[in-house]
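Long-time lurker, first post. I've been practising inverse folding by hand and with some scripts of my own, and I keep getting stuck on stretches where the structure tokens seem ambiguous. Below is the full token string for one chain I'm working on. Before anyone asks, I'm not after the true native sequence, just a reasonable design that respects the backbone. If someone could post their per-position residues I'd love to compare against what I wrote down in my notebook.
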């Protein structure tokens, strides 16, 4: 308790005094969200030793709280704002929220944690977080929070008390670079992020206690970033302690490695799910550079065979989360130079593959954002959610002063401009999500790549006893006519089906050879049911 009181004292002195009262926002129209459709909760199929089986049916929506929705007009997005917009998220179809760090911090990113037991003043309170979790649960949605475990802020009380003080009870909490404890190792060589010493039993106990206490708020699990900065031994102990409180709590690890073999150890009594970084590299090439990867026509679609074949290295209960963008990468739209056709290809791929798909807020409407230079860097990738055609509306956040470079009026990129508009990017996401939620074949593990003579194309089958899908992509600038031999498929397919994205009825030829004409940068999802 003494440590907690000290942290709160530091917050009062160092943070709260800096908070001024922003100007009242101008009166602008509120974006209207369509009524939420009632969708029954899916029933996951657990596997032996897999307590977090619910994630196999997850459709994840990542939110940067300060950017999403402002509930009180102070210009900062907040937890109550997310609760206010649960209708929109449910309308979209996502059923799992992942929030970037919400702790009291010395930076906008939330990574420089000052107090693990309080919410950053601009984001709300712990009670607001509990209310968000409860309201999400009422809608059969789950909430995963970001937990920083590799480092703290250099303003963290334990660090300040141990810097240069060999007799401090916290002297062994950090990774020191000299015997006088005046220099230290920082994450990415940043002095603001001193690395914790996870070999210290007191550090282990502290982090485990933090996790267990937050689990008691009802949160459904943790996203744990920079996992490679923490020893495997700690993760094993951490997992055991978390599962003691809630066996179904999710442990989602970020291991930023393109080599799948380096992911495998983290599935050994450590994490339930890892980000599918190998697939991301195949699609995008680099998280901070645009124009590369398969989504830009660089490389062969056959590279997906390697990226998607990594699961054979993992345990049967291991899960991967597929993504084409996140808060720490350039946005999907910027990656492909705002070519909506390529954005649609990425969405269709992520939402029809095995493994839980993750959507970064704003990607569903095509918001741009790339790593900046100078005063603003990651802020461009975490800009305010664009709710309105005018670029201004009640609830739109104003914390990022350079947002005009990302948020523009009347550009077609907003919820208001795309919601319920046929063929919009937002409608595509909703259609694909509804298809995935409504058909277990797209949530299961059955997948078989289908060969063709088109070197710029990639196609696969997804099926179960009720449904059969042919999903095909054209990763080129030319129209392609492709014939797929579907005679020897895992299950018989015949008769009429549906073209999910274009609409209309399709028919399987009696000889099982299906010819498909695809436009440049096209995604096709063909479905046959019983």
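-- Answer (accepted) --
I ran through it position by position. Result:
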């Amino acid at each position: 308790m003494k440590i907690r009181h000290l942290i709160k004292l530091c917050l009062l002195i160092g943070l709260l005094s800096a908070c001024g009262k922003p100007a009242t926002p101008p009166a602008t129209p509120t974006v209207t969200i369509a009524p939420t459709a009632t969708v029954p909760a899916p029933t996951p199929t657990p596997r032996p030793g897999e307590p977090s089986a619910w994630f196999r049916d997850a459709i994840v929506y990542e939110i940067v709280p300060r950017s999403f929705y402002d509930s009180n007009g102070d210009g900062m997005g907040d937890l109550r704002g997310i609760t206010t917009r649960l209708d929109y998220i449910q309308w979209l179809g996502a059923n799992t929220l992942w929030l970037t760090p919400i702790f009291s911090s010395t930076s906008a990113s939330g990574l420089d944690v000052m107090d693990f037991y309080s919410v950053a003043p601009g984001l709300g309170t712990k009670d607001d977080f509990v209310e968000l979790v409860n309201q999400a649960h009422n809608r059969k949605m789950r909430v995963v929070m970001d937990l920083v475990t590799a480092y703290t802020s250099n303003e963290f009380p334990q660090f300040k008390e141990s810097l240069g003080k060999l007799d401090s009870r916290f002297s062994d909490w950090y990774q020191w670079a000299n015997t006088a404890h005046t220099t230290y190792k920082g994450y990415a060589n940043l002095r603001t992020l001193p690395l914790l010493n996870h070999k210290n039993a007191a550090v282990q106990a502290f982090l485990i206690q933090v996790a267990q206490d937050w689990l008691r708020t009802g949160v459904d699990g943790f996203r744990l970033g920079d996992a490679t900065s923490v020893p495997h031994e700690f993760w094993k102990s951490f997992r055991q302690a978390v599962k003691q409180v809630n066996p179904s709590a999710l442990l989602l690890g970020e291991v930023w490695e393109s080599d799948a073999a380096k992911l495998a150890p983290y599935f050994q009594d450590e994490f339930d799910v890892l980000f599918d970084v190998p697939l991301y590299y195949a699609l995008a090439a680099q998280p901070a550079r645009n124009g590369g990867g398969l989504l830009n026509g660089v490389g062969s679609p056959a590279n997906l065979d390697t990226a998607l074949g990594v699961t054979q290295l993992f345990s049967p209960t291991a899960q991967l989360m597929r993504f084409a963008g996140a808060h720490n990468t350039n946005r999907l739209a910027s990656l492909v130079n705002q070519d909506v056709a390529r954005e649609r290809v990425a969405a269709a791929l992520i939402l029809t593959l095995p493994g839980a798909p993750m959507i970064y807020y704003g990607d569903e409407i095509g918001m741009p954002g790339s790593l900046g230079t100078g005063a603003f860097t990651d802020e461009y990738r975490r800009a305010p959610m664009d709710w309105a055609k005018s670029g201004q509306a009640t609830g739109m956040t104003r914390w990022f002063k350079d947002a005009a470079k990302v948020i523009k009026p009347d550009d077609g990129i907003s919820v208001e401009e795309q919601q319920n508009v046929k063929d919009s990017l937002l409608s595509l996401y909703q259609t694909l999500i509804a298809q995935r939620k409504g058909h277990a074949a797209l949530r299961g593990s059955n997948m078989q790549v289908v060969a063709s003579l088109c070197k710029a194309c990639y196609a696969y089958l997804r099926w179960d006893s009720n449904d059969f899908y042919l999903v095909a992509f054209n990763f080129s600038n030319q129209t392609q006519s492709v014939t797929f031999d579907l005679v020897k498929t895992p299950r018989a397919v015949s008769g009429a089906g549906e073209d999910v994205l274009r609409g209309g009825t399709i028919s399987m030829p009696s000889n099982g050879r299906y010819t498909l004409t695809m436009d440049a940068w096209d995604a096709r999802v063909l479905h046959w049911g019983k």
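A couple of notes from the structure itself: Residues 483 and 515 are 4 Å apart (CA to CA). Confidence is low (pLDDT under 50) at residues 1-43. Happy to go over any region you disagree with.
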